[in-house]
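so my prof wants the structure for this chain in the tokens format not the other one, which i didnt know existed until like an hour ago. anyway here's the sequence
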Amino acid sequence: MQKRHMRAALKRQAYETLKALILSGELKPGDALLEDELGPQFGLSRTPIREILRQLAQDRLVKHNSYVGTYVTQLTREDVREIYEIRGFLEALAVRTAVALISDRELEEMEQVYHRAREELGQAKTTGALNEFRGLHDLLVAHSNNLRLQAIVRALEIEWQRIGSIVTQSPDYDAEPALNEKYEILCAVRDRDADRAAHLIVEHYARSVHVAGQFLPDRSAVPEILLTPTQPSLLNISLINACGGDGKKP
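here's what i got, hopefully its the right format
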């Protein structure tokens, strides 16, 4: 039993490590993930390594081809547009319920987060500032009172994080406009103005598509093996998990 728990812990640690390396950009698009190298590196046999690679493929962080192997995927401008359009629509929908459910205490805490983010931004800690305040998006979704909406957002979460990491790591990125836009959204939610908040959310993501797209290639310029898969089954996985893991409706 103890050995089984240790193997499970090693497997989880290996998965989280590889995911973090991809999200941070240390493992770059086109880098190969070789089973023969990963096994000794993490102290795991071939079977759990394959399971880890399958999970990373479900996360759209890698792509496997039986003939050429497993490679880190490349996000594109089109990916950004598709993900941000969906996320913006869902958040705009969520906020119409969330404005009535988010407590004053939660809004006060988010206001404090904003001011800490402003301080970090003033100290040129770009990534810290955005990560600190991105919780506003999560707060809106959490108060959507819609489990399926939350499941779809979770299905896109890792790619959303990856886009943010790519953008904020660029020395040419200016974080202040996005931070100001998010604060306007917070103010609208604080005023319990659902229409204004929804409008600001859609505008924020529309501008974000343009900003993030500057740091990524067109889909047509990326080899097929590196393009992120978009199978609907990947969304179904999250929906099944949201229903308790058995696929039954709540």
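also thought this was worth mentioning. Residues 232-250 have pLDDT under 50 and may be disordered.
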